[in-house]
Amino acid sequence: MTDLLTQVLLVEDDDALRASATQALELEGFAVAAFAEAETPLRLLTPDYPGVVVSDVRLPKLDGLEFFQRMRAIDSGLQVIFTTAHGDIEMAVGAMRDGAADFFTKPYSIARLAHAVRQALRQRALVLENRKLRAQLDGETSRATSVQSAAARRLEAITDEVARTDADLLLRGGPGSGKSHRARQIHERSARSGRAFVTVDPGLFANAEADLLLYGRDPSVALSRSGMIERANGGTLVLEDIDQIPFAAQARLASLVDNRSFLALGAPKPRSVDLRIIATARDGSVLAGNPLAERLTGITISLPSLGEMREDIPSTFRRFVSEFEREFEREAEAVTEAEWHHLLTHSWPGNFRELRMYAQNLVLGLTRMADTGEAQATGSSLRDMLAAFERTVLEDALAKTGGNVGEVQRALSIPRKTLYDKLGKHGILPAAFRDN
């Protein structure tokens, strides 16, 4: 565990010193994110930050001691190493008394600083590991420390509250806001946890065998098979994007909501089921006259956009990066100041889905290639670069529209056949961009 942490958050307002220290620490094997001021790093630090801070004592707008106190308010277990000019030694000593890990006077030896950073990283790893073990012993989940924004805390509280009931409900939110993920959270925190969790995508109803897939075929008929509703018995059935389900199918599903029974193909009579129904719909979708909505809006939860939970972007982004590092079996490069600026200031219209794609591209090195023209340096042809750009445009459009091909077609102003040809060329599946 102690050898896994390599992240260093460097704060130094002297441009030349910041550049040389960054390069030297990177040569020592650390992943360095460097900043000229303290305000941005304070927005990035979270209680689960897997690294250490190396900071000048005297900074513009915010002196080292105040910076240190604000960092300790975020997490008292953060490891902070200060660098200081001769005249600021007293301030650095004061920080040491308050719990700073070490301090170095300028000019300092990079070898000695690197040694101190390694020691601080080992200590940080122990702190995080101990917290993890305590949480496991106490039966806690990590979500209590992973959300910071008021909107996220409210959503967590509401999730816990509705999970204790068995009532049907409707989740509303923008594209990529995590409606399906929230439905699963409610299921896993409920008394039905461990039982079936079945999701019905509205695209199912375009299938000629939609009724067979959903309702199944009765055992009394040849080639009998269970349907999705029967498989959800005892658990939770999620009806996604109910505004996109055909009206005839809505009416039949409304009967399921009312009676908790369904009629399989070829069955002589309806079969009873015990299940909870959670529906989802996009913000702004018209639900008036929708038979399902009329029955499922008794409890409606509106999911906040990512823009309303900006404090949670750093920790959520790190979680996504970790997931893709495991999936692709490669370590992401340290996030640059420009990339952190993008993360913290971008409007994220595609919400969590768009953020997740950005994390994926970072792990694959695609963000650097797009920003610096690195593709050309690696010998990629113009055709390859244009293909990569086209793929990025298509994926961004799908992320922002939640995989709605019609909206993508209108946004990009291209014929539907051309759009499908390009999606096929790049192997892009619109369904992968719908809430999951």
Approximate strand percentage = 5-15%
Mean pLDDT: 84
CATH topology of the largest domain: Rossmann fold
Can you tell me the overall shape? elongated
Oligomer: single chain
Structure description:
By secondary structure, this protein is of the alpha/beta class. The chain folds into three domains: 132 residues, Response regulator (Rossmann fold, 3-Layer(aba) Sandwich), CATH 3.40.50; 151 residues, Rossmann fold (3-Layer(aba) Sandwich), CATH 3.40.50.300; 126 residues, no CATH class. The protein is 49% helix and 12% strand. The strands form three sheets. A five-stranded parallel β-sheet has the order 2-1-3-4-5, sandwiched between helices. A five-stranded parallel β-sheet has the order 7-8-11-6-12. Helix 7 crosses helix 8 and helix 18 crosses helix 19. It is elongated, with a radius of gyration of 26 Å. About 4% of the residues have low confidence.
Q: What layout of secondary structure does this protein have?
A:
Layout: E1 7-11, H1 15-27, E2 31-35, H2 39-44, E3 51-56, H3 64-74, E4 80-84, H4 89-97, E5 102-105, H5 110-138, H6 143-146, H7 150-163, E6 169-173, H8 179-188, E7 197-200, H9 210-215, H10 228-231, E8 236-239, H11 247-259, E9 261-262, E10 271-272, E11 276-282, H12 291-296, E12 300-302, H13 313-328, H14 337-345, H15 351-364, H16 366-372, H17 374-377, H18 382-401, H19 405-412, H20 416-426
Helix pairs in contact: 7-8, 13-15, 18-19
